[in-house]
Design a protein that fits this description.
By secondary structure, this protein is an alpha/beta fold. It has a domain of 143 residues: Rossmann fold (3-Layer(aba) Sandwich), CATH 3.40.50.1980. The chain is 32% helix and 18% strand. Helix 7 runs antiparallel to helix 8 and helix 8 packs parallel to helix 14. The longest helix has 17 residues. The protein is globular. It starts with a helix and ends with a strand.
């Protein structure tokens, strides 16, 4: 009886005190979950991720807590007395409904796309080649958008887990319905990591869910190596602007505190718009063309975000979007780069993207994969 009371109190304290990694959300507590019949868990140490914690039990089960106050127990069955607000995820689930676009890359890197049966993203909207190919073969099938999933399809074909982005929080009825059908919901929060490498570290979460934690460590360390190699990189003195132009002609760029800005700095560059503070949760800022041009026209390098507004193949195409760009220093010097379409969907290549950025700023002449230069 006393043990049950202690366990309930610990669970209540953890649920109430989980706080955020960015100041906007709560942070993960260090208080472990103790359940009847379970050993006291061992806490896995993160390298730089702040928005999740993994606890390991002696019986092979694990608890994952996230910085929004949620907790997930990986177990084959629900232990007696487990708090109702803790989601139970089966070991190594297959027939996953993937509604979080940022998560597919982790399963691709682990060579576990076979665990995924359903997608909330249509075939042509995937820029991860293996995911698109799997949909073309019918190995992964479309099961409706995250806000309107095909419940009947998920139920009849045995969906065992739904992985959602935080967008699902705007339609809570979807998670409620999935839970009602017996389909556990896991919400990915990798995009809330303040450090770029912290996003990569979420591969450890999905490797633990998939039952291959050692592989997760290996994949994470491969990306960490890129950051380690550039840890002492010297500033190149080159300024850059990362941006795209909306259909209405407004310009969206990145401000201070954003992970893209941090990567530019880590690669030896300087974001022209780092003077715009991170006073809210949004990492991007929309500017009128005149204000954008006033600050960006003398930037050494332009990096155009093709993921949002489509591929650009020449500087002429870019100028067609806004004629003022013709007078930009980077345009005159032919120092305009574009991102590949997979940049946002392939978090597991963040280290490679950082290396590409350094190649651009240091002008090493090495071949790049995720950035391409336009003429």
């Amino acid at each position: 009886m006393i043990r049950n009371i202690i366990a309930a109190l610990l669970t209540a304290v953890l649920t109430a005190n989980l706080c955020g990694c960015t100041g906007q959300a709560p942070a993960v507590s260090d208080t472990p979950y103790i359940m009847e019949g379970y050993s006291e868990p061992r806490k896995d140490e993160n390298f730089c991720a702040e928005c999740f914690t993994i606890y390991e039990y002696d019986n092979g089960d694990a608890m994952i807590t996230t910085n929004d106050g949620k907790a997930y127990l990986i177990a084959d069955s629900r232990p007696a007395g487990l708090a109702e607000n803790i989601t139970v995820i089966p070991h190594s689930p297959d027939h996953i409904y993937m509604a979080g676009s940022a998560v597919m890359c982790f399963y691709d890197a682990m060579d576990r796309l076979s665990d995924i049966r359903f997608s909330a993203i249509a075939e042509n909207d995937w820029y991860i080649e293996n995911a698109r190919a799997a949909m073309q073969r019918g190995d992964i099938i479309y099961a409706g958008k995250y806000r309107e999933p095909d419940y009947e399809l998920l139920l009849t074909q045995g969906c065992r887990l739904s992985v959602q982005s935080t967008m699902s929080e705007h339609v809570p009825k979807v998670s409620e319905k999935l839970n009602e059908l017996g389909i556990p919901v896991f919400v990915d929060r990798s995009s809330y990591e303040p450090h770029p490498l912290g996003r990569c570290e979420w591969v450890r979460v999905y490797a633990r869910i998939a039952g291959c934690p050692e592989l997760g460590e290996k994949l994470f360390n491969e990306q960490k190596r890129h950051f380690d190699e550039l840890e002492e990189v010297e500033e190149t003195g080159k300024s850059a602007v990362f941006f795209y132009i909306t259909s209405s002609g407004r310009i969206v760029t990145r401000k201070a505190g954003d992970y893209i800005t941090k990567m530019i700095e880590m690669a030896g560059g300087k974001n022209v718009f780092d003077f715009i503070g991170d006073d809210n949760a949004m990492s991007a800022v929309t500017l009128e063309p005149e204000k954008f041009c006033m600050h960006a026209k003398d930037a050494d390098i332009l990096i155009y975000n093709c993921n949002i507004s489509g591929d650009i193949h020449s500087i002429d195409e870019l100028i067609e979007k806004n004629g003022l760009l013709k007078e930009f220093r980077a345009v005159k010097n032919g120092n305009v780069w574009c991102t590949g379409r997979s940049v946002y969907q392939d978090i597991m290549k963040t280290g490679d993207i950082l290396t590409d950025m350094h190649t651009v700023f240091a002008d090493t002449g090495e071949e790049t994969t995720y950035l391409y230069k336009i003429s």
